[in-house]
Sequence to fold (192 residues):
Amino acid sequence: MKVGVLALQGAFREHTAAFRSLGCECLDVRTPGDVAIIDALVIPGGESTTIGKLLGDYRLLDPLLERLQAGLPAYGTCAGAILLAREIVDSDQPRLGLMDLKVRRNAYGRQVDSFETSLAIPCLGDEPFPAVFIRAPLIESVGPGVGVLARYKDGVVLARQGHLLVGTFHPELTGDLRLHRYFLDSVAGGRN
Fold:
């Protein structure tokens, strides 16, 4: 499986390292030609407004939408979750908008309010998952076709809708590869 990691801004290198350690071929996605040759896509954390603008500047928005609407598996973390959400509270920034989610940017506060916690994620087993929240968004609501995979306090922090997976935290900044493996095996169909 060739995993494409959107490499315009943000934590793309860390995702690439995680997937390579799981035996995947990885490609930094920066052009429409890159979009055409990947089997799965990761949209990393970073600054969602910047990534959204760069999607337009690099002429990636339409090719990505076409592939994603045709079933390309995708995993969005933090900013990636924002870009995949249909609705962003108080924002009209460019986005892919394919998941039936409503998100709020920077819901936990500013950079100084970033934190780490252990999350119960039943689909990964009994051991808690180390979650790093950096200026993280919050999924305020999900549509009927969206499965909630994890919550933190009263908010949704991990969700899946068919071939799309989003998390509001940064698994790529930990040594725990269970979410990357889950994406490969359960969301992308185990084609690794």
Remarks:
- The CA atoms of residues 70 and 128 lie 34 Å apart.
- Helices lie at 12-21, 32-36, 48-57, 61-69, 79-84, 178-187.
- The chain has a mean pLDDT of 93.
- Residues 12-21 form the longest helix (10 residues).
